[in-house]
Amino acid sequence: VFRPTGLIGASVALLLALPSTAVAQVADRSVVFTSDPSQALVIDRDAGLQPLIKAASDVLPLAVAGLAVAEARFQGMARLLAEARRRQRAASAALLEVNRLVADIVRDADRLRTTYDDVLGGLSASSRRHLRRDARTRSNRSAVVRQVTSADWVCPIGARTKFRDTWGYPRSGGRSHEGVDLVGIRHDPIVAPVDGVVSYRWDSVGGRSFDLVATDGDYYYGAHLSAYGREGAVRAGDVIGYMGDSGNAQGVHLHFEYHPGGGQNAVNPYPLADAHCTDRADANVSLYD
After folding, report:
1. How far lies 222's CA from each of 107, 148, 156, 191, 195, in Å?
2. What are the residue ranges in the chain where pLDDT is below 50?
3. Which of 34, 49, 180, 188 is the most buried (most CB within 10 A)?
4. What is the count of structural domains for the chain?
């Protein structure tokens, strides 16, 4: 028995697998008939070179136009890359200049600090204390101006009040007054003048008191409350207590202190109250009228 192998075998198998297809060739066309005569497929053929040349001449202008578009896009991309490189060089130069400026500032600051330390070291102890006191005074004055002109600072009395400037007035035990007394009606609300954190305490002098550490590092103290309000994180305007006369107070009022930069640095808070506590009665007028 003969068994075709390889390419010959595959070709024979392919021909045997298509028994229902007949191919008829004519001089200039091939007609392929499937098993369904109504689905005839006619393929026109032309073996001459002229149609190929004509087809190529039709495609050539399209190819040339496509190359022109590609070249234009390539040139545009090249311009974008060149602009990007230029901007990168400019940014690098600007960054280098900023670094140089920062280095110059740091170097000058070091020189000034060294000069200041040298000058300070040559002064007497009393002169150094005087310079530091003047520096603190200027810093405190700037802090007061900042709070007086702030649009966010809130009067700590949430109702009508009256007060006057009693900073430095003598107090019991040889003390001097380090705040402003904001007079009000018992149980009127006391509010946080700024954002910060509130805690509470009690002693025989201040009675029920609050400590408020502001988000900017400043410190506020209030005394003689009748009751506490919100504790912990507060926003300006939150109720943190109520007017009273606890401790050694004479009459219902809030003893209010301001310490720029933290405790142990009390400054006169009267300008703050004077600027922001607009619901105010004259000192000789009763709040009950």
Report:
1. 44, 18, 9, 10, 15
2. 1-2, 4, 7, 10, 12-34, 42-46
3. 180
4. 2
